[in-house]
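Predict structure. Chain length: 274.
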Amino acid sequence: MAAAGTETTETPLASAPLERVRAALARLNNRQKVVLMVAIAALVALLVAAATLLRQSEFRILFSNVGERDGGAIIAALEQMNVPFRFNDSGSAILVPAARVHDVRLRLASQGLPRGGAVGFELMESQKFGISQFAEQLNYQRGLEGELSRTVQSIAAVEAARVHLAIPKPSVFMREELKPSASVMLRLYSGRSLDAAQIAGIQNLVAASVPQLSPASVTLLDQSGTLLSQMKSKLLEAGLDPTQVKYVNEIEASIIKRIEDILTPIVGAGNARV
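Prediction complete.
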């Protein structure tokens, strides 16, 4: 009896707030109900806007370690696109709202930004009328160096690249004509390296862009001062191209794995070296 009485008293108490809300809504006329619905919708819209603004207030890195010229061009482009930006504490990175990072990168890439600090053939577009032949040839060489630097920098392991070309001036008074040469300075990503095939590929890429330039005359150097152009495999020196060298290496690796799989059950893991 006491338990039943307790249940009957708790049920009205639990439903009292709901009944009060229903009674309050019942006392409202149609106009007041419309006003209430508009207020609720405005409150929901305000909460959604606040959540969106809070999300946009989180900034992520757009680009880091860019040169002064690229940094100025990127900032000017961001201002034109009305994209808010800021710098990190050290000033080495440009930050934009996290929700717009990928979109902004694609839009800047369509404008050729960042250029990696190198000036390409756009240098030829700003030439003045009546420029001397020497200055025109110098601008062409600078543009070619910039384009090659951008191309080499597109390799996955390369963070930055600079190409220097030494193109001798042709002369009819020299019995032995000097051959052109090139040097490439590479800054590799931390923990990354280039194999012999990639080094040969960069040498052939640069050599193919300059008339009479031999791949052997292209010198590669990394940020630690290591002469990469000497790191050639015997297969490359024998005349095989990088694709053939890669195929041979894959066959060798496959044979080594098969031999290890045969010896491991007999002598135990780690007791055989092929």
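Summary: The radius of gyration is 34 Å.
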